[in-house]
């Protein structure tokens, strides 16, 4: 990508918008807020476009912008609020509907985490970023990512229960 090639920006937006919206939604839990978040991040990316020389730089820049804005907005809390569910999770027989219920219930548990823990887990496990990439996106040290993810996963284990918790990559699971 040439440093002043503005024509490539719409191509980038078209190619990456769906993935950026999914990640933003997982971070904030609201479709409208996720759209606003991505729009704000893309505005920042557009302004920085002449400095971003490769698609990888644009992707990293946009992801960092989304992460920073999500954390900043959560600190203000005036823009959005957590909406916990008062319905207990369904426990039925395995099947498609049950899988959807399970995902919804797990999502509700994830939403109970503090924003930074939720963001770290989404970047690390949903976006499948390395610890270094997650640290770069969050603007913190790798050790902070490790401790934030660890604290978030520990809290999720309490909320979900150890027998229903997905296992972390590389974790040894006892039979």
Please provide a written account of the structure:
With 175 residues, the protein is mostly helical. The protein folds into 2 domains: 1-80, Orthogonal Bundle (Rna Polymerase Sigma Factor, Chain: A); 94-162, Orthogonal Bundle (Arc Repressor Mutant, subunit A). It is built from 7 helices and no strands. It has helices spanning 8-28, 31-48, 55-76, 96-111, 115-126, 131-138, 142-160. Helix 1 runs antiparallel to helix 2 (31-48) and helix 1 (8-28) crosses helix 5 (115-126). The longest helix is centred in the middle third of the chain and has 22 residues, at 55-76. It is globular. The model has no long low-confidence stretch (mean pLDDT 80).
| Fraction of residues in helix | 55-70%
Order of helices and strands: HHHHHHH
Distance between the termini: 51 Å
Instruction: Please state roughly what percent of the residues sit in beta strands, choosing from under 5%, 5-15%, 15-25%, 25-35%, 35-45% or over 45%.
Output: under 5%
CATH architecture heading of the largest domain = Orthogonal Bundle
Examine the coordinates and then state which fold CATH places here, giving the name of the CATH topology of the largest domain: Rna Polymerase Sigma Factor, Chain: A
Task: Give the CA-based shape.
Answer: globular
Radius of gyration: 18 Å
CATH class division of the largest domain = Mainly Alpha
The total tally of domains equals 2
Task: Provide mean pLDDT, rounded.
Answer: 80
């Amino acid at each position: 990508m040439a440093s002043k090639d503005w024509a490539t920006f719409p191509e980038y937006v078209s190619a990456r918008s769906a993935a950026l919206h999914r990640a933003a939604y997982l971070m904030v839990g609201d479709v409208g807020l996720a759209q606003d978040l991505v729009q704000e991040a893309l505005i920042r990316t557009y302004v920085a476009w002449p400095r971003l020389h490769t698609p990888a730089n644009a992707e990293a820049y946009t992801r960092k912008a989304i992460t920073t804005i999500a954390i900043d907005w959560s600190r203000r809390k005036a823009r959005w609020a957590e909406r916990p569910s008062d319905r207990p999770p369904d426990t039925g027989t395995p099947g498609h509907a049950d899988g959807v219920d399970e995902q919804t219930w797990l999502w509700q548990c994830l939403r109970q985490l503090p924003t930074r823990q939720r963001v770290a887990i989404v970047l690390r496990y949903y976006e499948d970023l390395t610890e270094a990439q997650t640290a770069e996106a969050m603007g913190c040290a790798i050790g902070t990512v490790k401790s934030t993810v660890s604290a978030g996963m520990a809290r999720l284990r309490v909320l979900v229960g150890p027998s229903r918790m997905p296992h972390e990559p590389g974790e040894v699971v006892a039979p």
